């Protein structure tokens, strides 16, 4: 079906061009600012950055084409939402991305995504268990992956620990315990899942604010918490640290 061109039709085309340029610029901005890792796994950085530049280039060429295009007869397409509304939604969502600071997931999301469920495991499916690795060099994700492979807590009794993460107060732990947690990503933020280990404190956990990042040094100990035998970090020191620029584990 063909209809005569009206000014609002060209406005719709311009909205599409601006929305495409805004989304491409937003992806490039996240890359330049070093915050792209909050949204996506580094394996997909090249694809995402390339997509951002591609959208900007296409928007420029499409804009030049529209600028030079005379008013004429155009095809009209029918869809659930009109093209102008789709363009407005895309443009507004891109503007929100520019205006609202990008924040990583924190304790509330960790609890909502099952951090308190001790059946939570990593999704990396490791194929090997290397006992020769230095315990103090393991990250929080390394410890959780190791426990996935060989979950007997007594095997790690007394091993030194030096890990970093943010504080979560699980409801199922006493007030002298907290959970040191991080989020792990396999593809993008949509599939991020929490990992963590209980930390035994010498004082009430209120001295360690929720969502604050800490470097924890201590040693592993087997304890029964919430009627389950599990590995606990007995903390010798908790040092506040800034939130990492890229807080996720991979």
UniProtKB/TrEMBL annotation:
Keywords linked to the UniProt accession: Membrane, Transmembrane, Transmembrane helix
Membrane spanning stretches: 14-32, 44-64, 84-102
Superkingdom field: Bacteria
Residue ranges constituting the DUF1980 domain according to the UniProt record: 17-115, 148-250
InterPro entries reported in the protein's UniProt record: DUF1980 (IPR015402), DUF1980_C (IPR048447), DUF1980_N (IPR048493), UPF0703_membrane_permease (IPR052955)
Name the UniProt record assigns to this protein: TIGR03943 family protein
Originating species: Acaryochloris thomasi RCC1774
Lineage: Bacteria, Bacillati, Cyanobacteriota, Cyanophyceae, Acaryochloridales
